[in-house]
Amino acid sequence: MATAQGQWQDAMADAAVLVSPARLEHFVAAALRAAGTADEAAGAVARALASTSLRGVDSHGVRLLPHYLRVVEGGRVKGRAKIAVETRAPVAAVVDADDGFGHPASYRAVAEGCRLAAANGLAMVSVVNSSHFGAAGCYALEAAGQGMIAFAFGNSDSFVLPHDGVAPFHGTTPIAFAAPVRGERPYLIDMATSIVPWNRVQDYRSKGMPVPEDVAVDAAGRPTTEPADVAALLPLGGRRYGFKGAALASLAEILSAIVTGMPYCAALLPMAGPDVTTPRHLGHFFIVMRPDVLTSLDSYEAGMAAYLADLRRQPAQPGSRVMAPGDREWATLDQRNAAGIPVAPALLGEFAAIAERYRLEPIA
Amino acid sequence: MATAQGQWQDAMADAAVLVSPARLEHFVAAALRAAGTADEAAGAVARALASTSLRGVDSHGVRLLPHYLRVVEGGRVKGRAKIAVETRAPVAAVVDADDGFGHPASYRAVAEGCRLAAANGLAMVSVVNSSHFGAAGCYALEAAGQGMIAFAFGNSDSFVLPHDGVAPFHGTTPIAFAAPVRGERPYLIDMATSIVPWNRVQDYRSKGMPVPEDVAVDAAGRPTTEPADVAALLPLGGRRYGFKGAALASLAEILSAIVTGMPYCAALLPMAGPDVTTPRHLGHFFIVMRPDVLTSLDSYEAGMAAYLADLRRQPAQPGSRVMAPGDREWATLDQRNAAGIPVAPALLGEFAAIAERYRLEPIA
Q1: What is the rounded CA–CA span in Å between residue B108 and residue B279?
Q2: How far apart are CA B62 and CA B76, in angstroms?
């Protein structure tokens, strides 16, 4: 499905060291604990990051560890937050992350959503007073693993132009959707509503490569392909059709921030700092639904199987094949489970410094 | 927001005759009744088409009348369908359209969704055994008019390439989302998951204009800008990033067809015929949620107001302004309520023939 991302991974893997997923997850959890994070929260963050790296989404995987250590040490994120769940209706709950990590609060929200949906067919759950939650897909997948269909939405600070705008407003606000597939791993969509993620630009820069056309703009809002000049990203659809991507970013923003009662994109402190002491109060939003309420489970499962088989057998461009959403991620997972997760030299250096600082066993 | 669509409307309006919205709605309903459609269903279709034309979405407005007359006369769509509602859970209902028009069944589904969500905070409703429902936005808007946030999804037959594919598979499957805004008309997203709608290509052809780059392909799946050669559309994101648009189409397809137990895109009879006697069994899917469950109504309303005001005051490209989703549609509605809805000469000719055939008062 994601050719551009596939090429990206290949390029990144060239100089990388392969590390076992279990080793990485263990290291992430140990480092977070050493920085003052409670066991359960550290485990949830480590699980989210390692599983995301396994699926090949390196932008939201273990590379986030140094950032998370900075913010938990700085006090922006509470390592020992007390997560609280309040049920607001038979099918609605609010999870208060207490300014802790977004990952344990989001896993908790999905667990609550699955419980309420199991009883009632459908549920919505918000997470408030949260921080970065990694890849939205983690939480949609968690629900799909329990036989549920789920949406996950999050927001972030300003990186992306509004349509017809010249300055960043929305974040790269993710939309994730997952659904169970009988006898297979779940169907999975996990996408930013910008054309490319922000850190992709940094990588073009570090490789001395131009950014593709119609993907990014400079500080004056003019199109640029020079990575050093990039000041903001274009929404999905680019200059001409970006009203669609901007609308999707806006939708995710409304669900994550307005419906949850949290600050919206432009009112958020930047993820990157320099302030790493003040909580950011991110919001997340989840919808969980049982697939066997509006039709039978047999009908749902047979329908998914037929649809996915038909999609995957569609004729393809030379040298490629048509994949269903998630296929690329699961292929990467199989490969990385077997061979290890590639960790780039720069990140390996950061991990070595982390190991030394917290007296942990080095990762490689 | 939608510059490309705005230009489009300006171009179309050049040679058009302006007709009052009430006159158009009355004519559509009268023609449908004359073709054997029950009063309530004819009224629902007319309301959907006229309101869609008013918002400037001409592709899904009154231009659909000749097609709807063909299918109701052909027997594909029952003019006197018996809509049945079955509640499957406290927050879930199935509306059986009985092979009638999609519009009355979808309005009914939204009414049921609003009723269930008012009581429980959230609801999902499917429509099964349906036909074309016009613009998905009609139904999200209907819920927003009742103070609810809503998603609407539909599917359609194959027009759009899968990512990396060479032949059409998904439809232009719409995603709509609407939310109430205190003191304003609702926030509205109503978008196809292809870059442009299918009939936009027909219009480029009739105007002798090339199709923009990276929007459409020929019968061999190769990029083309020649309207006469266009055989399929590219998903939002184009050749390089179309995996995102294809994923959104796939998501809408799963909710509209698989979750509802209806046939998926490639298994549907084509909307355009030639068979206009066999029912198509389209599915639609709606989620309705109260905005005052996870946060207070005051918090929601204040949050929306602040977010939208901030978005609308963002600095813009020279000669344009940053709009929120729906702003363009509501501006068009004000203008068309005052001046009338532009009806192109070709459509006016079709309306004249319809008037003669059914002995109706001509529209202009």
Answers
A1: 20
A2: 19
The residue among B214 and B199 whose pLDDT is bigger is B214
Average pLDDT over residues A302-308: 98
Q: Kindly report the CA angle at A292 between A287 and A295, in degrees rounded to 5?
A: 115
Q: Is the pLDDT of residue B215 over 70?
A: yes
Q: Which of residues 296-335 of B touch A (CB under 8 A)?
A: 296, 299-300, 303-304, 306-307, 310-311, 314-317, 320-325
pLDDT digits (tens, 9 = 90+) for B5-43: 444 454 455 678 999 999 999 999 999 999 999 999 999
Say yes or no to pLDDT of A116 above 60.
yes
A237 touching B (Cβ < 8 Å):
yes
Between the two ends of chain A, the Cα-to-Cα distance in Å is 32
Question: How do the residues of chain B divide into helix, strand and coil, expressed in percent and rounded to 5?
Answer: 45, 20, 35
Instruction: Please identify among residues 27-66 of chain B the ones whose CB lies closer than 8 Å to any CB of chain A.
Output: none
Separation CA A110–CA A97 (nearest Å)? 13
Q: Is the ipTM of this complex over 0.90?
A: yes
The CATH architecture one would assign to domain B78-195+234-338 is 2-Layer Sandwich (3.30)
Nearest-angstrom CA–CA distance, B337 and A147: 48
Q: Look at A315 and B166 and tell me if their CB atoms are within 8 Å.
A: yes
Percent of chain B with pLDDT strictly greater than 90: 90
CB within 8 Å of chain A, chain B residues 207-226:
212, 221
Write down the pLDDT at residue A12: 52
Q: Select the residue from B122, B215, B298, B313 to test the A interface by mutation, using most A Cβ atoms within 10 A.
A: B122
DSSP designation for A208: T
Distance between CA B109 and CA B111 in Å, rounded? 5
Asked whether A279 and A129 are in contact (CB, 8 A), the reply is yes
* Chain A closest-CA separation from residue B279 CA (Å): 19
Per DSSP, B62 falls in state G
pTM of the predicted model over 0.90? yes
Per-residue model confidence as pLDDT tens digits over A12-64: 556 789 999 999 999 999 999 999 999 999 999 999 999 999 999 998 999 99
C-alpha angle B18-B23-B27 in degrees, rounded to nearest 5: 115
Is residue A75 within 8 A of residue A276, CB to CB? The reply is: yes
**Cβ–Cβ pairs < 8 A, chains A and B:** 254
Domain boundaries, chain B: 78-195+234-338
Residue A291: closest CA among chain B residues belongs to which residue? B259
> Across the strands, what pairs with B286?
B125, B152
Omega within 30 of 0 (cis) for the link into B318: no
pLDDT by residue (tens digit) across A270-280? 999 999 999 99
The CATH number assigned to the domain with range A78-195+234-339 reads: 3.30.1370.60
